[in-house]
Amino acid sequence: MSKPQVLIAANPIKGIVWSKEEQKSKLGAVAEVFELGETTREQFFKDLAQGGKYANIVAIYRHNESVSAIGLFDKELIEKLPESVKYICHNGAGYDQSE
Question: What is the pLDDT of residue 28?
Answer without folding.
Answer: 84
